[in-house]
Design goal:
The complex is a heterodimer of chains A (97) and B (313). Chain A has helices at residues 2-29, 33-55, 61-93. Chain A is mainly α. Chain A is built from three helices and no strands. In chain A, helix 1 (2-29) packs antiparallel against helix 2 and helix 2 (33-55) packs antiparallel against helix 3. The longest helix of chain B has 28 residues, at 52-79. The chains are: A mainly alpha (97), B mainly alpha (313).
């Protein structure tokens, strides 16, 4: 059972790391601010999500698991809103702010 | 080589790279962003050294709060149309050897350590039990070196007075001119309504848990200040006039309570800043709660800047 959990953790965290890598490449290579924001939000959402899901079996009890999930939720919230704010600024003032 | 040492080496190289980039980059705004990223990466380095208290402080104060103060400075420089990037080469030539000297003198004891490294850690661990605290850092801050901690809070107030004294005469006692660049819009308002309740709970948790785990008044106070500033920037609340009596009372509440408890130690425990046996933990927690509030208000007002608008009647 422990082995199954370990394999699950390894796969999920690796998937999360892959999303972080892809998102970073996107951030560096995409042509304009809006597409770069798109890459960033995928990292926040899926990358961190996979890592949190992967770490859940290793969490320190239910309270620890809840802390992990709430960290993910708060990052989701701030990520989504900051992205909105940046995108609004870009649309109003152009890519150079 | 184990995976963790590969990670540590990458982190050290990354830190050096960000540090160098922050110095070299020409644009003041970009340099501040580099500094914030540097602070956050440094926090990870402190976690790797198992110094979680220092990591929290570095992320909150070194990266976040100082970064915000410097962003404010950059914005003011732009408004004043001062070219911040035009540091003369002669100045840089003098500054570089001096910085190298500091780096070398810091590196020397690390590279050539004495045979027996002096440490007070065993003494702290031995004497921590009677205080009832579980976090040795809190023990050092509030029991063994409490005078330093008290003076550190007073220094914060002096820094705020320094900023306030930049106010023109007419604006004394008035509202700090925090420049709000964000257009009022529903997204920011939503965040400023949703996040502060969560942030306040996190701040209370950090302050409370500081007695036995990493955390404490400074970290909690920074989170409080961040929430306050978010509400102000979203336009939901105004910055209060600095002449408000309640504001000044909140500013001195923490340091004053610390001082009163310290003076009470003269009577109850025969020494300034000593705690009567058995009451150390409740007294320290009371001081931490008061300090969290005061630090939150001080940091918020530091970021808000000097008063610029005349007092409203």
């Amino acid at each position: 059972m422990t082995l199954a959990f370990d394999i699950f953790t390894a796969f999920a965290v690796a998937a999360g790391a892959l999303f972080f890598l892809a998102g970073t490449i996107g951030l560096l290579r995409f042509p304009d601010p809006l597409t770069r924001l798109h890459a960033l939000t995928k990292v926040d959402n899926l990358g961190l999500g996979f890592i949190v899901v992967g770490l859940l079996p290793r969490a320190d009890g239910v309270l620890g698991a809840l802390k992990l999930v709430s960290i993910w939720l708060i990052v989701q919230l701030s990520g989504a809103i900051v992205t909105q704010l940046l995108a609004i600024t870009v649309r109003q003032h152009g890519p150079r702010g | 080589m184990s995976a963790s040492s590969v990670f540590d080496i990458c982190l050290a190289v990354l830190l050096l790279g960000i540090g160098a980039w922050t110095i070299i980059v020409d644009n003041a705004f970009a340099a501040v962003i580099g500094f914030v990223v540097y602070g956050l990466s440094l926090a990870i380095a402190w976690v790797r050294l198992s110094a979680v208290d220092v990591a929290l402080t570095e992320a909150a104060i070194g990266g976040g709060m100082t970064g915000m103060l410097m962003l404010g400075a950059v914005a003011r420089l732009r408004l004043a149309r001062v070219d911040g990037a035009g540091t003369r080469w002669s100045v840089r030539l003098v500054a570089a050897p001096l910085c190298a000297l500091i780096a070398a003198s810091l590196a020397t004891p690390l590279l050539f350590p004495p045979p027996v490294i002096p440490s007070l850690a065993p003494t702290v661990t031995q004497n921590l039990v009677p205080t009832g605290l579980g976090n040795p850092v809190a023990g050092v801050l509030f029991v063994f070196r409490s005078l330093d901690t008290l003076l550190e809070k007073v220094v914060l107030l002096l820094a705020l007075l320094g900023i306030w004294s930049l106010a023109p005469d007419g604006a004394w006692g008035g509202q700090p001119g925090l420049r709000v660049y964000a257009q009022p819009n529903s997204t920011l308002t939503f965040l400023a309504q949703l996040l502060p309740p969560i942030g306040i709970v996190v701040a209370i948790y950090m302050c409370w848990v500081g007695a036995k785990d990493p955390g404490g008044a400074f970290q909690g106070g920074t989170v409080l200040a961040a929430m306050w500033l978010l509400v102000i920037i979203a336009g939901l609340e105004n910055v209060p006039s600095i002449g408000q009596p309640w504001l000044r009372a909140l500013l001195v509440f923490g340091p004053l309570l610390f001082l009163v408890i310290g003076l009470a130690g003269l009577v109850l425990a025969n020494a300034f800043l000593a705690y009567p046996p058995g009451y150390a933990k409740p007294m320290i927690v009371a001081v931490e709660v008061a300090l969290t509030l005061s630090i939150g208000v001080v940091l918020g007002l530091l970021a808000a800047g000097p008063p610029e608008l005349a007092r409203r009647q």
